[in-house]
Amino acid sequence: MRVACHHKHGEEQKCCACSGGHSHQGKNKKTIIIRIVLALLFFVLALFNPFSSFPSLYIYLISYLIIAYDIIIDGLTNVFRNKNLDEKFLMTIASVCAFLIQEYREAVLVILLYQIGEFIQNHAVDKGYQSINKLLSLKITTTHLLVDNQLIVVGVMELKKDDTLIIRPVEQISVDGVIIDGESNLNLSFLNGESLPKRVSSGDQVLSGSINMSGILKIKVKKSAEDSTASQILKYVKEAMKGKATSEKFITKFAKIYTPIVVGLAIIIAFFPLLFGQDFSFWLYRALTFLVVACPCALVISIPLSFFVGIASSAKKGVLFKGSNYLELFSKTDTIIFDKTGTLTQGDFLVSKIVGDNEENILEKAALVESFSNHPIARAIVKKYGKEVNAKLDSYQEIPGQGVSAYYQGHEIKVGKAEFVSEDIQEKEEGTAVHVSYKGEYLGYIVITDVLRDSAKRTIDAFKNLGIEVVMLSGDNKLSVGQSAKQLEADTFYSNLLPLEKVQIIDEDLKQEKIVTFVGDGINDAPVITKSSVGIAMGKLGSEATIEASDAVVMSDDLFSLVESKKVAKKTIKIIKENIIGIIVIKTLALTLGVLGFLPIWGAVLADVGLCLLAVFNALRIRF
Fold this sequence. Notes:
- By secondary structure, this protein is α+β, with helices and mostly antiparallel strands.
- Strand 13 (about 395-400) and strand 14 (about 405-410) form a beta hairpin.
């Protein structure tokens, strides 16, 4: 049997969720088919034995050894080497004991049906994984490098920053970069699941995994293949299953305890009636049926598979979770907190006006200091200034969430929030105001505007309709944040926050036993993302530190992908619960019938295999 696994495919591994035994890629399908056919032929031959001088027992044994040898070896090896009891050990006990009580037909049929069920089930799970992996695969290995006006085919891993690439129509972009010439439409479905193409031209950033749909593009490389977006997506998908959800951890522990208990109960069923003079063969048969029915394979397979499908489906929607535990927590989220700037807004800052006696002087002093900062607002001010800044500062200090203080030619320049620059300033603007002082004298302020994302209102409305509390946090002034909160109809908003104050707000919610998801993009958001139940980073605009600290990444500009991902997460948990309840109910019924003698061993195998298949197909429904 197969489950979502953590190893590289192609390696022979033990099942991560149970106590071992399930071969993942080690069996050759053709070999199994041949063994099943041969065993079936000998089984039929034994049923209608035309050789009067050749006992049917020997023909059954031939059939049994053909179909059961690997089950016996794996089952016993796992017991004596790994000290674990698995389903193969249960099948070995059941079939061997059936031979001992002269139930030859049952002995062979148990293993034969088990192997057929394994084959069908493995095929179904493999198909599911293949279809999911197709959604997440990046197959490009070479690209066209422009060197001295000549195109050279090179390996993607050989590319360096500032190399120039030519991307022709229908080719996939291999690394993150910026367009220096040309325009085209890009298919971004690999990154965000969107089928609509995006128009790009000179100056636009492009991400690896995008497919060039029309024109020829000349691109300057900004990141190596290893650090580019597509590689990061694949890295997170491979690592995603390392963080087990609560449900998976329970099943892992459950399987280790459950199987020995089942074996113990089977022994009691077989031997306890002997105290009352009952027939041993009669009760041993029922004990063997109990063993086969009690196998926990359906639970062991369906839960990890469900989470794998859920994570892949969420990635297709545009949100990539780094582990099944985070997907499970996101499904239970009752409070979602958004950072305003760069998350609910586009993060494309513009200087809308300058207020003060000397606007040019205010802008010059601000640009002089902000030219040393990487903050988006700082870049907007420097861009508005429009001149090259070559001045050398005597000192420079950036205070997170407050502003920048610097000395130039022996005089202090302060740029930032009102209370940071001067205690006497009152905020009057609904936009973000950056205040400026020089030599201790207040000069005025620069108003920075940032437009709300098109999807912000729709996203917040959808979360509220799901019964989730929506909160907005920002370091901006109360007027600015209040205006945005009113437009978006957020339940609550907090303004003028320092990074540590944001952490304190998360702490308060967690103390109330809320499950809190935080969505942010800036480097200052990293502590908040780490503190929250689920921390989500905006992958396209987010800082590398924030993305690294996060539990999930939004790979597109569309915030609504969070709502779609929430629906996937809830559906995943719903299907897991359906599988658990269904398996327990059917298993209980089958166990009762087996102990009472109404279910033969071969019927128990059919019930177990059928239940596994139903659980697998139900898990695969998450994709739709």
